[in-house]
């Protein structure tokens, strides 16, 4: 039975519909990219820190310390929360992908490998970590983009169906 023809889900099953997953993902991307990055960019420009010669988290910390009382603490808390949520998110997405591709028995080895790489990433040189991260993110984008293009008709159909069902509930 197509998702669009399934009976209404109870409130606890809200996130079982793929459209709700997409909406949550879009919200997270909007908050992170538009709001946080814009705020950070404005602080860098308004404090003049962008012209200091430093880069990365050190630049952001410098700008916030110069622009806001307790700015260093704000950046530290933000980095800790961002790092933690990123590790959790990537772990979950990877686990679900491994489970889908290879079955439930492959999840435990994936978790072990993931934890090892988190440990290696914590002590490796920053340039290497970013290079690997960028490479693997790019490699993840390729099958995702192919899937999005191939499944566009299904995505459009399911999205329309989901919002039509929400209109009927009102």
In short:
The chain is an all-alpha fold. It has 6 helices and no strands.
Structure description:
By secondary structure, this protein is mostly helical. It has a domain of 52 residues. Helices cover 79% and strands 0% of the residues. The protein contains six helices and no strands.
Q: Beta-strand level of the residues, as a percent range?
A: under 5%
Strand-and-helix sequence, N→C? HHHHHH
The low-confidence parts are none
Average pLDDT works out at: 86
Whole-number radius of gyration? 21 Å
Distance between the termini: 24 Å
Category from helices, strands and their pairing = mainly alpha
Largest sheet: none
Helicity, as a percent range: over 70%
Question: Helix and strand layout, with pairings?
Answer:
Layout: H1 18-47, H2 56-67, H3 71-102, H4 107-123, H5 126-150, H6 152-169
Keywords, separated by commas or semicolons:
170 residues, mainly alpha
